[in-house]
Here is the input.
Amino acid sequence: MPVTVSLDGSVLTARLSGDIDHFTAADMRSEIDRAITMNPVSELILDFSAVNFMDSSGIGLVMGRSKLMSELGGKCSVCDPPAYIVKVMKLSGIDKLCPITGEGGVRL
Amino acid sequence: MKRCLNEMKLSFPARGENEAFARACVSAFIAQLDPYVSELAELKTAVSEAVTNAIVHGYRGRRDGIITMQVRLCSDRRVYIRIRDKGCGIADITQAMQPLFTTAPEEERAGLGFSVMESFTDSLRVKSSRGRGTSLVMEKTLRERSGDESVKDGVSNKSGRKSGTGSPLR
Ligand SMILES: Nc1ncnc2c1ncn2[C@@H]1O[C@H](COP(=O)(O)OP(=O)(O)O)[C@@H](O)[C@H]1O
Ligand SMILES: [Mg+2]
Here is the structure.
């Protein structure tokens, strides 16, 4: 499964895995959005610990979910991305909209 | 220009499945130069951006469009990658290369493909003509290998990932 979602109260964690590119992002997006609309979610955590690869399609995915959460009055964050993916994310400035945290919740 | 050590050419149809295929091919071929993990990741990302653009923009979902990819490995550790499509072409290249510019915002394109390609390679050249297609050339010189990977490539942490990467973003 490229996405596994788990709900803890109103906190939804979406664990992404494998490669995120234009081809795989579409399914990930609908999977996450379905979980957001079906549950009362105030916070979305995108768990990147099992992501092996990401190009700018992943930035679009994070930006889109972050926008959706802010429209719903909630928040969105990314946790545990591999170092090289942090680089791709920072290139976009997405970390200013959507905080990225590493091991132990440290802000990256 | 230094001697060409090896060369490959590949053509495949413009299908989303082939984004991963193109990355895997480049990665397997470049392995002959024994790149650092970070360099490999950067080149795979740049290739993924170029191939995705050919599929999404060049051929606009026309799955029978053909993409060609040529890779050369040179004796000075330079990697040359050319990716071409015969799709719709780019009307204004300067505008297309601006960070955040996209003609497909509704598909959640971030408009950062060219920025990623520029950041992760040493040079990027784009040629395009409307109605005829687009050709991209990217080049990157890989660092010399030293015996100890952790010295240059960042110390790997417990999960086996690299915690420091090579070229900083421009
Ligand atoms: N191969 C191509 N053929 C036609 N148009 C292209 C091609 N590559 C890029 N473009 C144009 O350049 C724009 C910017 O590309 P890019 O930086 O990769 O952002 P994105 O793919 O997110 O839109 C695209 O929106 C598209 O209009
Ligand atoms: Mg693109």
